[in-house]
Amino acid sequence: MDLKIKIKNKTAHISYLISLLYAFIIPLSIAFMNILIAGFCILLILFLFEDGNLKHKFYEINNRQKLFIAVGFLIFVFYLLGIIKSNDKLKALEIAGRISSFVIFPFFYLFYKEEIQSRIENILKAFILGNLIAVLICMINAIYLYNTDSDAERSVFFYRSFSFFRHPGYFSIYISTAFVFLYHIYIKSYLKKNIIPKLIIYLIATLFIVSIFLLSSRAGFLAFFIVLVLIIINIFLQLSKIRSKIFLLAMLVIFISSWIYNPRFERTKNNVENIFNKDAKTINKFPRLILWKASIEVISENLITGVGTTNVSTNLYKKHKIEKRKGLHSHNQFLEFFAEFGIFAFLTIILFFIIIFIEIFRRSSFLLLNFTVIIITAFMFEVFLEIVSGGAYFVPFFFYLFMIAYEKNKIYDSLHKKLYSNDT
Fold first, then answer.
1. Which of 22, 44, 119, 289 gets the highest tally of CB atoms within 10 A of its CB?
2. Domain count, the chain
3. Domain encompassing residue 119
């Protein structure tokens, strides 16, 4: 075999292994994620040296896929332009580097499409496994602290004390995503006669549900609740036996109850009620509302060009007497993006999601629908793009799930029909 072909095959296989490892490490280590992103960049350079036929790669994808890549690239360009107006250009450059995911992963997919397409489910499984290990370590750590530390309280099982790999909000978003991927794999493995895989999937799903409750992130809880409702409706509409429908409804009621009686939800509910009653004391203790209001004021005064990367926090301090602390932001990715770069940037990110929803309905892609719902929910409560835990997690999955022309969708639909028409 020609040496050039051997090298090409080798780098293609390495691209798959790095994708696998990257998906696995997302919930476990930011530092290792950064190392692997550097690995993706090296593979891109190697491809250009080996092949260099970038134009041909673009001809292989359809116009909707090209538009999707172009809009993602435009989001990255806005962050580059935002450096010009930034008061902290070094920090702005660092953020733009994180947003480079919008360039790295689409091109990586184009260059190594065959490897990713043929093994996408293994990449999803690696992400599930990474989350499972993270959850188990958090649970073991909490049990250990509770039993060995005399000062430890029940709080070691909840929120930040429980989640030491990531902020609870981001970790719960990861787990919600892993749950969706697990459901996708569950549909494909359900018809196998061996009951062991089914029991393992049920056990992992139960651990994920329990961990969502323990993490107690309101944004994560909401995202998980929405996708769980979508999954239950999806199954419910295809079930033929009344007892199966009753079982699913019971599951939904149990989950809603666990949410309602979660202490953090109780406090949120009381705060919302007081806010509707215009209780000023409560409003002042509900920082997200103050930040959202201040962000809208910043946007209204800088509608066209925005204030630039890293400058939103300074403007938020000016608008309201918010406690000055490091990393203050809008706690809403849409508002933050609008405030930073103006109305054209905001319309760009809206277009990004419109393209995705058009493709969801064209392909009837239930997997992509659930993933998109999770990301939009995260965007509503966090500035998700600008940190490694956010952008570098969702961008590759978005592009992989969107770009891959799933012939498997037809298989998925037929399995769905066969599965639930034979329901007993």
1. 22
2. 1
3. 3-275+318-421
